[in-house]
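pls design
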């Protein structure tokens, strides 16, 4: 059964399968983990046994499947405390809204929740539920609590649900995307295996380049084309990268934010200035392009203020395209940063557009966010992001921009190749 790519050789995974139609994908996940060399122990909730049998899961995993909290034989044999400890990672897939609510509340009234409460291991949760349940404020509150507790998320993704005619976010990530998240998490664990993730310095010795804020494209000496970007998210990322041990260069458009501690800041005005400052700042191990660069600039900048002369004739505003900084750097043959991260601020079809952008721009990761006015992202203090990579999409709930930055920096550090 060995896979040519035994990326999980000797890793011990405890897989918790909760009750949902996606439980059948849990069976495939067992197979995928095992073919990469992992040992898989399986715990099923009562609900899960309504969808798949412990016999099937046990046959694939090659061992007993645990379902009962008070099972005299199992308690003497392994027991929930041992199950909670004897692994490298716990994966909950599918994680139902109910199980996540129990995790967030610290419940322990069945084997799965007792293990999840007793464990000190890293936990990766792959939610699966109806889109209405996913967007419910109760679920979003629970997710925010779980993330604050250090639990990692894989998915959920958008798409058709098992219920016919239902679409939205809530579909469990595909087993291979979960395997990729397991690999990334175990690789990151080498860098930040301390219980307190905030203490870890996974970017020690790395140079991180960040762009942030809008650009101003002059029409004349007093007027310019701009956008509503506040620069908060990019500044928070620069600060989080510095806190993670990196040497950080922040190239910032015109914003009223103070230089983050320990970050070297270059202030620029136009997209062309920003590209030049980025080129000067290279080489970098990681480049994160969070700036909202103006796509177009006036083709000619008037040397003096354009005047309204009363004739009713409106001066034409011809625009020309700005350089695409992200695409320029990501397509470099020489001196391309080891990891290139772009942002996609969208108002429609957020994930679809982000996936297209990944290829078109040549980025390794696109951080997509919905900047519809209702979400108040531009200028606001919170952000809801989706991490789009060639392996799949990971969606995070709404979080403060500082927290998005901190988690993003650690998540990116986990994807750095050891040689980068
Ligand atoms: O095409 P769009 O503006 O949505 O792409 C967003 C991503 O591309 C962001 O990471 C942004 O910083 C980057 N970008 C850039 N230069 C441009 C336009 C966008 O670096 N001229």
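designed seq:
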């Amino acid at each position: 059964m060995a896979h040519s790519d035994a990326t999980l050789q000797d890793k011990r995974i405890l897989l918790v399968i909760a009750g949902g139609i996606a439980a059948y994908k849990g069976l495939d996940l067992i197979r995928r983990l095992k073919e990469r060399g992992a040992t898989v122990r399986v715990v099923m909730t009562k609900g899960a046994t309504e969808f798949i049998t412990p016999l099937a899961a046990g046959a694939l995993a090659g061992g007993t499947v645990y379902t009962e909290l008070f099972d005299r034989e199992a308690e003497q044999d392994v027991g929930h405390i041992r199950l909670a400890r004897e692994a490298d990672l716990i994966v909950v897939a599918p994680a139902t809204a109910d199980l996540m609510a129990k995790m967030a509340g610290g419940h322990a009234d069945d084997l799965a929740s007792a293990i999840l409460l007793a464990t000190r291991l890293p936990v990766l949760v792959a939610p699966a539920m109806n889109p209405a349940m996913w967007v419910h404020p109760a679920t979003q509150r629970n997710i925010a609590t779980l993330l604050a507790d250090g639990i990692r998320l894989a998915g959920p993704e958008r798409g058709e649900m098992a219920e016919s005619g239902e679409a939205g976010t809530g579909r469990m990530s595909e087993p291979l995307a979960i395997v990729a998240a397991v690999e990334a998490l175990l690789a990151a664990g080498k860098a930040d295996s301390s219980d307190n993730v905030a203490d870890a310095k996974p970017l020690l010795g790395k140079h991180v380049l960040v762009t942030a804020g809008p650009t101003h494209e002059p029409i004349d000496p007093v007027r310019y084309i701009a956008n509503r970007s506040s620069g908060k998210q990019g500044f928070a990322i620069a600060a989080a990268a510095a806190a993670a041990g990196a040497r950080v260069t922040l190239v910032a458009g015109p914003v009223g934010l103070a230089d983050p501690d320990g970050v070297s800041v270059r202030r620029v005005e136009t997209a062309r200035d920003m590209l030049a400052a980025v080129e000067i700042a290279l080489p970098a191990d990681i480049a994160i392009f969070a700036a909202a660069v103006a796509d177009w600039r006036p083709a000619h900048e008037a040397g003096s203020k354009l005047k309204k002369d009363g004739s009713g004739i409106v001066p034409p505003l011809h625009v020309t395209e700005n350089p695409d900084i992200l695409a320029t750097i990501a397509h470099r043959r020489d001196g391309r940063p080891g990891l290139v991260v772009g942002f996609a601020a969208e108002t429609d079809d957020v994930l679809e557009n982000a996936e297209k952008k990944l290829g078109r721009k040549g980025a390794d990761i696109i951080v997509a966010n919905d900047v519809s006015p209702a979400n108040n992202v531009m200028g606001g203090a919170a952000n809801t992001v989706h991490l789009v990579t060639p392996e799949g999409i990971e969606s995070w709930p709404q979080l403060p921009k500082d927290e998005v930055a901190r988690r993003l920096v650690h998540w990116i550090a986990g994807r750095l190749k050891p040689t980068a």
